[in-house]
Design goal:
mainly alpha, ABC transporter involved in vitamin B12 uptake, BtuC, globular
Length: 333
């Protein structure tokens, strides 16, 4: 059956992610719940970036800004709840709402300016905004400055879910990952997604047809930012620590690498890439502190010999499987 190897791999991956806490508890290895929880959060960030990079062709080196915004919504809310007694600021629903609002507004501003340029100029503007907001966070001593903030408590969801438990937080992350994948699927397969992908291939033709390309791209930019902002809220609760490095341009580079490694412009590619990236990071960092020296050549080989990333390899396996099945069926006939 056509597509079987790829489908089987994705199903096993998602089911595997769904049972990680159960296996970690069974083998008494809580570390893996925390590690895979981080994978889920970065997968959400990579899925959001894929909307504009993989499907829209917009290379943003400022995407981690939204991770920072979401993280600081939790950090700021927590510090006021604990130190100033403003308990409602620790409310998780409020923090997610604020992360969505501020991420959307930031995405609107950055997108409105950067999308008027193309190529390296677009990249440089997103990079400039990233560094500007990074240094704003570094210079804000009230909220930790360069040292960051330690969270004395996790977000409070009014008793609906207790994320002080790592397993509960893991499944909250998993639910948000599924929601981000569902939203991405619906968007890309809608008229909106067709315009975004069409603009990536031939923007002038899409304009000639009559589509307001700038408006569509701006909306995609805002949506991607809001999804990544939610990932920031989850990240802050996972690490129980917030500092400016979360929005540094190198973190955006990590998200780009995850997306490219997994497969640009594919639905599950960013998830595959995030899992592979963090697995390699964990494995190589256990061998040497200079693990990037080994990871770099690996990434180069993937880009050169595995076009479409890991998902591209799975697609080629699908083709081989289909041809092999066809030959066998003809022999039987």
């Amino acid at each position: 059956m056509k597509g079987t190897p790829r489908i089987i791999f994705i199903v096993i991956l998602m089911l595997g992610l769904g049972v990680v806490p159960l296996l970690a508890d069974y083998f008494d290895e809580p570390f893996y719940t925390v590690m895979f929880s981080r994978m889920l959060i970065l997968s959400i960030g990579a899925v959001s970036l894929n909307l504009i990079l993989g499907f829209g062709g917009m290379v943003s080196f400022g995407h981690a800004v939204y991770l920072g915004i979401g993280s600081y919504m939790v950090g700021i809310g927590t510090i006021h709840a604990v130190e100033d007694g403003i308990e409602w600021m620790a409310n998780g629903f409020l923090q997610i709402t604020l992360a969505i609002v501020f991420s959307a507004l930031t995405g609107l501003v950055i997108g409105a300016i950067s999308l008027r340029t193309r190529g390296v100029y677009f990249i440089m503007i997103t990079l400039a905004f990233s560094q500007m907001l990074y240094f704003v966070a570094v210079g804000n001593e009230r909220y930790g400055g360069d040292d960051g903030l330690s969270l004395y408590m996790r977000s409070d969801f009014n008793g609906l879910i207790d994320i002080t438990n790592d397993n509960s937080l893991y499944y909250l992350n998993f639910v948000f990952l599924l929601l981000s994948l569902y939203l991405s699927h619906r968007l890309i397969n809608s008229r909106f997604g067709m315009v975004i992908r069409g603009a990536k291939s031939n923007e002038q033709r899409m304009r000639a047809i009559g589509f307001p390309v700038f408006r569509y791209q701006l909306v995609a930019f805002v949506i991607a930012g809001t999804i990544c902002g939610i990932a920031g809220v989850l990240s802050a609760n996972q690490t129980e620590f917030v500092n400016p490095s979360v929005m540094h341009w190198t973190r955006s580079g990590d998200l780009i690498i995850m997306t490219v490694l997994g497969g640009l412009g594919t639905l599950f590619g960013p998830v595959i890439g995030a899992v592979a990236f963090l697995f390699l990071e964990e494995f190589l960092s256990g061998i040497t502190e200079y693990w990037q020296l080994y990871f770099g050549p690996m990434l180069v080989l993937v880009v050169i010999f595995a076009r479409g990333g890991i998902d591209g390899i799975l697609v080629r396996l699908d083709i081989w499987w289909s041809r092999n099945s066809t030959v066998k069926n003809e022999e039987v006939d």
